[in-house]
UniProtKB/TrEMBL annotation:
It comes from the Eukaryota. InterPro entries: MCP_dom_sf (IPR023395), MCP_transmembrane (IPR018108). The lineage of its organism: Eukaryota, Metazoa, Ecdysozoa, Nematoda, Chromadorea. Its main location: mitochondrion. This is Uncharacterized protein. It is found in: Mitochondrion outer membrane. It comes from Cercopithifilaria johnstoni. The keyword ATP-binding does not apply.
Length: 484
């Protein structure tokens, strides 16, 4: 018996378990570090960061025309070309520590529960029996016991490793706004603790736990069903001496064992996306603010926001990443994914210019997030789908924000205290919305640069592609907001 096992007072069975699981933890951590650039780009996929142009082609399964986002390898190559190799490995320290901590705590909890609480989930019987030696009821009891005990150990492991996962995601997400807020592990732990408290260190914990539970229970019960069904079929083949059929059933069982986790993952993945999105909530990073994402107080808000725009599947594929959402035209005449949008029903008093541009007809319930503004100018810049000759100046004075829902069902009107002088050029609908207040307040957070703000177009009750993708906030103060 090794000296370390005697020091830890482990018996032979526990020593064997530690050696076996320990090798797995080390190999998994090393492999995770080796493929970390793909983990990096997957996190950016889940956050909806798509700065590279689309390509057109045929979708593999149905041979129909489609737009495609860069696959994981091309995306990583473009990140490397633009930012260098170090950017692809941003957050690797936190990632390695998260994986190692998760595996180690999982193992320690499992040994502790086995030693002190052997009957949690059921009595430890039939543990070494083959599936063919048990009845359906006995097999089910064993599956339930395994699932319950694994849920306990995974819960503890996820809780202990979550702060490192949050730091990794936030370090990766800084690429969106070019921030350097979370530059090393210890400083990031301290900063999150000071700014957000323990809650910030465990942002997105609940959806991650839900994903873990769905994975554990889903895989256990799918494999249970596969084993019992194929066992009956195999017994029938043996009874009638159908050797070829028996071999086919055995091969099918092995194949289904490999497919089962992939199948279950399709149900757990949406919660992984929500967990990633919530990890940056409250961070003050640009990716956590409008127009990349509205502020989320609870994870259910993020789920409800992402569901109608197919955001829960972000990053589910590394290859053949079809884009079916809105697009915008860049200055290089390439098409880009227009992910910066959101849905709102809190439409407020607005003003309208008669004509609309040639790209999209804007209805009377449209609105542009813009209020508390004294002077506003616009010139289209990089990635804009508006012609660069467009110039629009709007002065908003004595603008009173109202929050009554009666406005939503009636025609918009303006009182004498809401006079607005318009200079019309291309004829756009310009509307006011109280959501811009959140954007302005977020701009004043000390970790943001003023030129990182974006103003986007929204329509009440439905998602709309952004019409002004790169309106840049050049300067602002308590009473004035200048946009150009």
């Amino acid at each position: 018996m090794p000296a370390w096992s005697q020091y830890l007072e482990l018996n032979d069975a526990e020593t064997e378990k530690v050696e076996k699981r320990g090798r797995y933890i080390i190999i998994r951590t090393l492999v995770g570090a080796a493929v970390y650039p793909l983990t990096h780009v997957k996190i950016l996929f889940q956050l909806g960061y798509e700065p590279f142009p689309l390509t057109s082609g045929k979708f593999l399964w149905f041979f129909r025309d489609a737009y495609f986002l860069p696959n994981g390898l091309k995306y990583a190559t473009k990140i490397y070309d633009r930012f260098g190799l170090c950017r692809l490995y941003t957050g690797i320290n936190a990632s390695v520590l998260s994986q190692f901590t998760s595996g180690l705590i999982d193992l320690a909890t499992s040994i502790y529960v086995d030693r002190h609480y052997p009957e949690i989930g059921g009595k430890p019987i039939n543990l070494d029996k083959e599936e063919s030696e048990m009845s359906d009821a006995e097999s089910m009891r064993r599956v339930l016991r395994f699932a319950i005990r694994e849920s306990i150990s995974r819960t503890v492991a996820v809780i202990f490793s979550r702060p490192f996962t949050v730091i990794m995601i936030r370090q990766i997400a800084q690429i969106v706004g070019g921030e350097l807020k979370y530059h090393n592990l210890l400083f990031s732990l301290r900063l999150i603790g000071i700014e957000e408290g323990p809650k910030g260190l465990f942002s997105g914990l609940i959806p991650q736990l839900i994903a873990e539970y769905l994975s554990i229970w889903g895989i256990h019960f799918v494999l249970y069903s596969i084993e019992r069904i194929t066992l009956r079929a195999q017994q029938d083949a043996i009874r009638y001496n159908k050797t070829e059929e028996e071999n086919f059933i055995v091969s099918t069982r092995k194949m289904l064992h490999l497919i089962a986790p992939v199948f279950v993952n399709s149900f757990t993945y949406p919660f992984q996306v929500v967990s990633t999105v919530m990890a940056v909530a409250g961070s003050g990073l640009l990716v956590s603010m409008l127009p990349y994402s509205p502020p989320f107080a609870i994870w259910q808000d993020a789920y409800d926001y992402l569901l109608p725009v197919n955001g829960l599947k972000r990053g589910s594929r590394i290859f053949w990443r079809e884009h079916s959402g809105a697009v915008s035209v860049g200055p290089d005449q390439e098409l880009y994914a227009a992910n910066k949008h959101f849905i709102s029903e809190n439409c407020l008093t607005a003003i309208s210019i008669s004509d609309t541009n040639s790209y999209e007809r804007l209805h009377d319930d449209s609105m542009l997030s813009m209020s508390s503004a004294a002077g506003i100018t616009h010139e289209s810049t990089e990635n804009s789908i508006i012609d660069s000759s467009t110039y629009l100046t709007t002065k908003l004075s004595s603008f009173s924000i109202q929050s009554t829902h009666e406005e939503f069902d009636s025609k918009l009107y303006y009182s004498s205290t809401e006079r607005m002088d318009l200079v019309q050029n291309d004829g756009y609908d310009i509307f006011a919305n109280k959501l811009i207040i959140r954007l302005i307040n977020n701009l004043r957070v000390k970790h943001l640069r003023e030129d990182d703000a974006r103003v986007i177009l929204m329509r009440r009750g439905e998602t709309v592609s952004e019409v002004f993708p790169n309106w840049i906030m050049n300067a602002f103060n308590n009473s004035n907001l200048y946009v150009s």
